[in-house]
């Protein structure tokens, strides 16, 4: 089950063979894009290919469900850093079909946590600590509404520059087809 030995052995050869040179680029996204998308394994290679992106073209921020849940969380901070410090000037929120966050059951997740050794006392403490654990572990009812909500949080952020375009899309996780569900108006 432990993969670290294989990874380090491969990495040693990767560096010795100078395979990294193929991926050389700068920290600034060539296409000046920042993408918020899901961590789903089906999108790892498909999403960039479906968008004609190469290594270095875009900043890609991934999390479970491509969800921006709060205006001052890590995802929004990463977007703002990409815009202000890394020369991005357009934002794409891209959800996908058949997302595991759709209809996610927080009680089932907690059951799985307990099965893997998290104590019931810890779960109880967290539930009563001010953290709404059940909401924190809940996904969304449908990807379309989730993308629209994330787009809204980004567009309405008080620190977002006025000229930034924010788009919402859904990618088909089997075919790679992109559906534009919320296009930003052109800004001058």
Q: How would you sum up this structure, described in words?
A:
This protein has 188 residues and is α/β, with parallel strands linked by helices. The chain has 2 domains: 4-98 and 143-182, Beta-carbonic Anhydrase, Chain A (3-Layer(aba) Sandwich), CATH 3.40.1050; 105-138, no CATH class. It is built from 7 helices and 5 strands. The chain has helices at residues 4-16, 43-50, 74-85, 106-115, 120-127, 133-136, 143-155; strands spanning 33-38, 58-63, 90-96, 165-171, 178-182. The protein has a 5-stranded mixed beta sheet, sandwiched between helices. It is globular. It starts with a helix and ends in a 6-residue tail after the last strand.
Chart the SSEs and their pairings.
Layout: H1 4-16, E1 33-38, H2 43-50, E2 58-63, H3 74-85, E3 90-96, H4 106-115, H5 120-127, H6 133-136, H7 143-155, E4 165-171, E5 178-182
Parallel strand pairs: 1-2, 1-3, 3-4
Antiparallel strand pairs: 4-5
Strand order of the largest sheet: 2-1-3-4-5
Over all CA atoms, what is the radius of gyration?
A: 19 Å
Predict the CATH topology of the largest domain. Beta-carbonic Anhydrase, Chain A
Proportion of residues in helical segments = 25-40%
CATH C-level class of the largest domain is: Alpha Beta
How many domains comprise the coordinates?
2
Question: What's the N-to-C terminus distance?
Answer: 54 Å
């Amino acid at each position: 089950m432990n993969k670290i030995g294989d990874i380090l052995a491969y990495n040693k050869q990767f560096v010795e063979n100078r395979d990294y040179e193929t991926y050389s680029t700068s920290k600034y996204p060539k296409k000046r894009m920042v993408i918020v998308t899901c961590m789903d394994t089906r999108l790892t290679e498909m999403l960039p290919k479906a968008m004609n992106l190469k290594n270095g073209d875009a900043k890609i921020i991934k999390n479970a469900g491509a969800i921006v849940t709060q205006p001052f969380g890590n995802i929004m901070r990463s977007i703002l850093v990409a815009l202000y410090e890394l020369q991005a000037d357009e934002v794409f929120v891209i959800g996908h079909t058949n997302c595991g966050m759709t209809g996610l059951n927080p009680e089932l997740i907690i059951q799985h946590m307990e099965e893997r050794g998290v104590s019931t006392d810890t779960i109880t403490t967290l539930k009563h600590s001010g953290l709404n654990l059940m909401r924190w572990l809940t996904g969304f009812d449908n990807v379309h509404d989730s993308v629209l909500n994330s787009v809204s949080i980004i567009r309405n952020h008080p620190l977002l520059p006025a000229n930034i375009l924010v788009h919402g899309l859904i990618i088909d996780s089997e075919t790679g087809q992109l559906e534009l569900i919320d296009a930003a108006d052109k800004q001058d």
